[in-house]
Automatic annotation (TrEMBL):
Subcellular localization(s) per the UniProt record: Membrane
Protein name from the UniProt record: Rhodopsin domain-containing protein
Domain Rhodopsin, chain residue ranges per copy: 56-296
Keywords of this entry: Membrane, Transmembrane, Transmembrane helix
InterPro entries: Rhodopsin_dom_fungi, SAT4-like
Keyword Membrane: yes
Species per Swiss-Prot/TrEMBL record: Karstenula rhodostoma CBS 690.94
Amino acid sequence: MSQSTPSTSSSMFLIPAMPPPPGTQSNFTDPETNATTIRILNGLFLGLAFVLLLVRLFIRTTLPQNHKLGWDDWLCTVAVVASIVHTVLVYLVLELGYGRHFWDVQAISITHGKLVIFALVDMAYVVAVFLIKFSILLLYHRLFAIYAVSKRLIIVGYTSISLIMAGTLGNSIARVTVCTNIQTASTIPFCSGKNVNIVLIVVAVLNAVADFYILVIPVHRVAKIHTLRKKKAGVLVIFLGGLIACTMSLVRLAVITENLHSTDVLWNGSRVTPFTIIEMNLGIICSCMMFIPPFFTKSKVVIYSMKSALLSRTGMSLSKARSVESQIYTGEPQSQPQANTTPQQEVLEAWEKQTPDLELLAEVEASGVVHGH
């Protein structure tokens, strides 16, 4: 009966997960990796998404028109949580070799548990993208549901992204179930690198189409709103920020297609991940962009309130302070306050006057009946 010697055991740690290309040697010590880029982008874009979510929730809960958090706000919050889960999983798999060439990973280090974690990253992305798209559609539903055409477009969007998510999540679950068994995964065609890439390409195409479809809904509606051209252009710029996310989904598709026949799965996957991160978090960022103008407006009011309190202590009248602030912000002199008005009431009145009502994006045309448009 043969026994493994120490030299035999140590040699097992020198076997790469796949043979390196001709002229290349495996490097298990300090291999080339895309990990640093992924960590930086993940932290940056997730941080921006989180900050803008806070801005959104702040505005939605402090608007003087007695607005309350809607389903779109709650789902956007859950989407950020899903993005955080995705980030944690990505950081974890980076420690397990993700981002390296497959020949720079020891074959003995590939275990069932690690394969499950790799598969969970894909599942987290599927769920996060679905939540982001659905929350955006819920926002559009709140703003544009009074229009028959827009409402129909939104309902089609609900149905389409739900079907895409169901199929994609089902495929991911099947991969976790079938393709994480080291002994049998290599013999199953479904788990081969090429077939996995084909599925990723199909999903990427569907997601890209869905992104552009969702982008069309507000552009189509805002273009018909009867308002000042400058104001309309500003609203369109806010919504067209989603065009960047659509571009990222196309770039992601191009990178996946480029590596269709490659078996260097960890390296190829890490080249896609930066665009996945940007696309996912930009969806959250763009859905919160429309809350930035009222946030800055309220910030001005808060600053004014603080200045008014300081000026009142120095003997300067509140009405004079308001006049100075009005000339700074609008270039027009401020009307005199009514008698018996407290500083708190004046600040609230200024906030109400300067804060644009978000529901004005859904204003009804002068004719009053727009359901056929």
